[in-house]
Design goal:
The chain is mainly alpha-helical. Helices cover 60% and strands 10% of the residues. It is built from 7 helices and 8 strands. A two-stranded antiparallel ribbon has the order 1-2.
Length: 277
């Protein structure tokens, strides 16, 4: 049972949606799949709009999903290696344990290698997938809601979420899954409204990683299940690096645009040479 007493809401959702051929199908997987499907639909639309090869995009999606899963699992295992009793337990991904930043790193690495080999514009691809990334992340966080995970510390705020913790105690906590989902929805709206006004290729991606990083630093500080590197929350560290890289891309991109505009203006106002007498 999950309750939002301050909002008068109550949910009783089982983790298993249904069984198929004797195997349980979980809501978490269904929700993630829905997020991927909607993200792909939008990415194809955006690729056609900006002239990016849709066949290349589909190839990137296939490789991105594969290496994204590998990256998400590897990232999680690295910072939780002590919880596994044997080497083979590492591969039991169906028991849970993935990290979104690892998925992004794996997907982007695969995309970069593909674009280099196939001579595709990597920065244009990043712009194409920026909104789809946010779509997938906004929807995917509801899988954490069904699993009763990725919540924050205790709170008395009106939108608090009441659940039973790992020792069976009823607690009211920050619904951080909801915070991140809503943060991503706002990011989607901002990027969709701005995309036709972008100044340089790669700008949308720079805005995406800056926006997501800002939200993640704040939200991760509320969570109780963060991956840790000593006293440091790993996701906050990666989020800070994302913000730094995003701001760097924006600053250098705007400088290039400004310098280009100045050169054009100089060409326009430069007086023609006087004819020789």
């Amino acid at each position: 049972m999950i309750q939002f007493p301050g909002l008068g809401l109550e949910f009783n959702i089982e983790r298993v949606a249904f069984s198929l051929f004797g195997k349980d199908v979980y809501w978490y997987g269904i929700i993630i799949g829905l997020g991927v499907m909607l993200a792909l639909i939008y990415a194809l639309y955006e690729a056609r709009r900006v002239g990016f090869d849709t066949n290349a995009l589909l190839d990137v999606v296939i490789y991105g999903i594969l290496f994204g899963i590998i990256g998400a699992r590897t990232y999680y295992v690295i910072f939780n290696i002590t919880q596994y009793d044997s080497f083979w337990d590492i591969f039991k991904i169906w028991e849970g344990g993935i990290a979104i930043y690892g998925g992004l790193i794996g997907s982007l690495t695969a995309a970069y290698i593909y674009c280099k080999k196939k001579n595709q514009n990597f920065l244009l691809l990043l712009d194409v997938v920026s909104v789809p990334f946010l779509i997938g992340q906004a929807i995917g966080r509801w899988g954490n809601f069904v699993n009763r995970e990725a919540f924050g510390g205790e709170t008395t705020l009106p939108w608090r979420m009441t659940i039973y913790n790992e020792i069976g105690k009823l607690v009211s906590v920050h619904p951080t899954f909801l915070y991140e989902s809503l943060w991503n929805v706002v990011g989607i709206v901002v990027l969709v409204l701005y995309r036709k006004h972008k100044k340089f290729t790669g700008e949308l991606f720079a805005m995406y990683i800056t926006w997501y990083g800002l939200g993640r630093i704040w939200i991760e500080g509320l969570r109780t299940d963060s991956l840790m590197l000593g006293p440091i929350r790993v996701s906050q560290l990666v989020a800070l690096a994302s913000i730094g890289f995003g701001v760097y891309m924006l600053v250098t991109g705007y400088k290039r645009v400004k310098n280009s505009d100045n050169k054009v203006e100089e060409m326009v106002v430069k007086p023609a040479p006087e004819p020789k007498k």
